[in-house]
Every structure is written in C-alpha cells, then in structure tokens.
Amino acid sequence: MPRLFVDMAYKGSAYHGWQRQLNALSVQEVVEEALAKILPQATEIVGSGRTDTGVHASQQIFHVDVPEGLNPDKLQYQLNALLPFDLAIKSCRWVTPEAHARFDAVQRGYHYHIIRQKDPFRHGMAYHYITPLDVEKMNEAAELMCTKTDFECFSKVKTEVNTFLCTLFKAQWTEDNGNLVFYVSANRFLRGMVRAMVGTLLEVGRGKLSLADFEAILDGKNRQEAGRAVPAEGLFLSEVRYPESIYLS
C-alpha cells in the first residue's frame, strides 16, 4: 500500500503522551480513531518518537499506509474536521513504501519554554520560573554538552535502551521578550533526557553547579547526580528531519 508521512501538531495537556496505552488517552489513539472513520480498514500509525504525558509538539511525524488513489489534501481536511481542537494536521506527503517515521529520522529537535512572569495566555504551555539565572553560564554548559556523547546521567533510570549514546548537533539558550527558550537537536534522545537536561542547566544558571560540577555529572553517568526533571508543560517536540530521498512529493 502507498505510504504517507503526516506532519501534525498538538497541545499535549489533555493526553498521556503520544503512545497508545491501555488505560489512558493518548494522541496516537485519537488519531487512529479518526482515521478509522475515513479509511476502509483500521490502521495503525507509527510516530517519529514518543512524547511523555503533557508534552506538546509543533512537529510530530507519523507514517500511515493508505489505499491506492487517496488524495492527501482531502485526508488532511477530513482529519482536521474530525480531530479535537488541540490536535492539528499540517501536511501529508507521499514517501517510499519502506520509509519509517521513527527509524529514518536523522535529526530531532526540542524547544523548552520558560516564562519569567505569570502569563495566563501561556498557562500550560511554558514553565513559570522566576529565580534569577546566569544565561551566559547556562550556554557555556550547553556548549559543553555538545562535546559529549554519553547522556546516561539524563536518562530515566528504568528504561530499556541498548545505548545511552547520542550525537548533539546544537544546544542553546535564547532570550525572547524577557523569557527563555532552550533549543536542543540530536540524532536521538533518551526518555526524559531533555527535561533532566534543562533542570540541570537551571542549576548552573542559579549558581548551584559550576561548569566543572556540570561536566562531572555528564562524565559520572548517574541520574541521581543530575538536576530534577522540569515540568512537561514547557517542552515541545519541534523538529523531525529525514533524508530528502524518502519523499516522493
């Protein structure tokens, strides 16, 4: 069957993450139920990766196999008509039949948003954190991370992975109208990695950790030595990249 890559965005506040679960509502479940009303048979979708409970996505990619002759633009319209307000389909593109939304991704990026003042319009979409921070030091620590490849110290303890190795392409803090945004991109991420990473960088910004302390945590590979995981509400999966060769349109 022909295969589509579907680019979607969602506000994760009402969902227990991307992955379908037995006793909790997930983004995947809601999308698959909508597809079941459009396509002639029940269809399982495969996402580029999991997002945890409460995490948002400005770009999540999933692949789906569809019948011959289907119109991608019509599918986008139909899905958006069926999906709730907090889920949106941005585009549908034909890909090669073997293209895989998870395994073919070569780069993923996340943004973490911190607001410095209470803002009712960003409630649930950013972390309200008012403690003074040394952003320059936080960026020095972020640059240091890009020289490392083992991030076991930022991984959830009980997780089944074969390796803790990741290649970071960029890690940087920027200020936006007095608020802070952390961007990090890599070839892959571990479970809980970005939230633990941000929590530890905030400790550097508060002056609780020196750069030497931060490097020792990275080299020590002990999750208990790193900072706490910051709240999910500030985290967005914002970028998933693939080789252009997999696209047919």
Notes on the protein architecture:
It is a single chain. The longest helix is centred in the C-terminal third of the chain and has 13 residues, at 193-205. β2 (46-47) and β3 form a beta hairpin. Strands 1, 2, 3, 4, 5, 6, 7, 8 and 9 form a nine-stranded mixed beta sheet that branches. This protein folds into two domains: 3-104, 2-Layer Sandwich (Alpha-Beta Plaits); 107-238, Pseudouridine synthase I, catalytic domain, C-terminal subdomain (Alpha-Beta Plaits). It starts with a strand and ends in an 8-residue tail after the last strand. The chain has helices at residues 27-36, 72-82, 135-145, 193-205, 211-220, and strands at 3-10, 46-47, 56-65, 87-95, 107-115, 127-128, 168-176, 179-186, 235-241. The radius of gyration is 19 Å and the shape is globular. The mean pLDDT is 96. It contains five helices and nine strands.
List the helices and strands and how they pair.
Layout: E1 3-10, H1 27-36, E2 46-47, E3 56-65, H2 72-82, E4 87-95, E5 107-115, E6 127-128, H3 135-145, E7 168-176, E8 179-186, H4 193-205, H5 211-220, E9 235-241
Parallel strand pairs: 3-9, 5-6
Antiparallel strand pairs: 1-3, 1-4, 2-3, 5-8, 5-9, 7-8
Protein name: tRNA pseudouridine synthase A
Subunit structure: Homodimer.
Pfam families: PseudoU_synth_1
